[in-house]
Every structure is written in structure tokens, then in C-alpha cells.
DNA sequence: AGCACATATACGAATTTAATGATATAAAGC
DNA sequence: GCTTTATATCATTAAATTCGTATATGTGCT
């Protein structure tokens, strides 16, 4: 009979918390882990943009982009600001930027380095 | 008729590359963005572990854990080493560790800070 | 060879996610 | 108040992911 040693040693309180954090993190990562949404965030990392601008960048339908933005809003990765008819999106906080920077470092920096 | 300005200004070459990188990154993030898989990686970030150890940590069935590990292998987030009957898993490279560290900083560091 | 243990794979069912087209709301200008 | 522009939401369908169970493979031991 194999003993569930590690499980017990860890102590349920600590493990519980670890699991809780993992769920929070995976929720955020799920929002990030979509080609278009990741592109949206990269563009927004530069500066705030209107929905129309984002549509043009991605070359996707308005309703599709709007839906993806809604998802990012729900998961609190972006915030909005209204100016007349147009709505401007931007990154919601520094946490998002941190993760995004790490992703950028891993996947995009090598490209730059190669170019120098 | 609205003009697709930004799309053209960006230049297809650069944009193409950005899209390519976004797809690579989102593929990796998809693998990460799963509660159990993220936990697995966090545990592996500490040190290599056998499948049995991982099962005990997560309290999940062998086949489930093995399936998640297979996914992580496919997406090249982990590597394996066999020693007799047991197979040891560990993080595949520094890129994975970088992303994982960023996620950890955002979601787990605050907890530690609060405790001090 | 035969058995037991550790791990991997296959496959269908259930769930989740994404894209599309159509419609709705909100602000601005006439 | 009507029209245009910008954005959001909804319903439907298509596709991908996850989960559970069953089965297979590989390794060491006797």
C-alpha cells in the first residue's frame, strides 16, 4: 500500500493555498493563452488603443475582437476608458505587464538579439 | 469605407513575425494554463520528481497525471530521465523557468510578504 | 517464461471555447 | 428625432479540451 507521504508532509493548509493560487494563476493564463488575445495585450502594452484600432491590427471581425476584449475585461487583464463614441482599452495593472514581459523576453527577445 | 491603415503601416513582415511568435507563446501558455499542470510544473521547479511522487502530491489518478505529463512533454515544457522502472520528470529549459518565476512572483509572492 | 510494478496510450463522453451572423445600445451630429 | 459610427451582446454551430475507464508497454525480479 503506497503511502501518500508528500501530500501529508506538505500540510493541508499550505497545499490548499498552493492549489488556490494555482487556480487563480491558471485562470489568468487561460485568458492569455490565445493567439489573438495575446496579440491584443502586446499591442496594449505599448499604449492604449480603441477597439477599431485593435480590429485593424488583428484583421478580425468586430464582434470577435469585442468578445475577446470582453473576456480580457472579465479576467481583469484590461480596463477601459470612454471618450465620446470610442472606448479605449489598456492593460489593467502591473501584474499583467510582468507576465507579459516575461513572455515577451522568452519569445520575442531572441529575435531582436539576432538582428543586432 | 474604413481604411485598414495600421495593418499596412506595420509592414507584413514584422506583423507576420509577431503573429508567429504569438502563436508559439500561446501554445506554451495553453499548456501552462491548467490548474493541475501548473501545480506539476511548480513542484518540478523545485526538483525532479517521479510520476508516483507527482501523483501523491496532486492526489490524482495515475492515468490523469500521466496524461498531463504527456501534454507537457509534447509542448516541450518538461523532460524525462529513466532510472530502472521509474521515470523522473523535470523542467525542460530555462524559458519555462522564467515564465514560471514570473507567474510565481505575481501570484505567490504576495502571500509570503504578508507572512513576514 | 511469468508476474508485478511504473508508466503510457486509446477512445468515447462530457464540457469548454471560438467564430459567425444578426441584432442591440450608446453617443454625436444634423 | 433620425442617421451614422463605435461597441457590445446573443444565438448557433463548429472545434478543441478534458475526464474516465480500459488497455498496453516496459522493466526488473524470480
Automatic annotation (TrEMBL), chains A, B:
Key words, A-Z: DNA-binding, Transcription, Transcription regulation
Coiled-coil boundaries: none
CDD domains registered for this protein in UniProt: HTH_ARSR
SUPFAM superfamilies: Winged helix' DNA-binding domain (SSF46785)
Keyword DNA-binding: yes
Gene3D superfamilies for this protein: Winged helix-like DNA-binding domain superfamily/Winged helix DNA-binding domain
Tagged with keyword DNA-binding: yes
A Pfam family per the record: HTH_5
Residue span, HTH arsR-type domain: 15-111
NCBIfam families on file: HTH_metalloreg
Protein name per its UniProtKB record: Metalloregulator ArsR/SmtB family transcription factor
Taxonomic lineage: Bacteria, Pseudomonadati, Pseudomonadota, Alphaproteobacteria, Hyphomicrobiales
Amino acid at each position: 500500500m503506497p503511502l501518500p507521504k508528500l501530500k501529508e508532509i506538505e500540510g493541508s493548509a499550505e497545499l490548499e493555498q498552493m492549489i488556490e493560487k494555482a487556480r487563480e494563476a491558471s485562470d489568468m493564463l487561460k485568458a492569455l493563452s490565445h493567439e489573438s488575445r495575446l496579440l491584443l495585450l502586446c499591442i496594449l502594452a505599448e499604449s492604449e488603443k480603441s477597439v477599431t484600432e485593435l480590429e485593424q491590427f488583428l484583421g478580425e471581425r468586430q464582434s470577435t475582437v469585442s468578445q475577446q476584449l470582453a473576456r480580457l475585461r472579465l479576467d481583469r487583464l484590461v480596463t477601459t476608458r470612454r471618450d465620446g463614441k470610442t472606448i479605449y482599452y489598456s492593460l489593467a495593472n502591473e501584474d499583467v505587464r510582468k507576465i507579459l514581459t516575461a513572455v515577451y523576453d522568452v519569445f520575442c527577445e531572441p529575435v531582436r538579439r539576432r538582428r543586432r
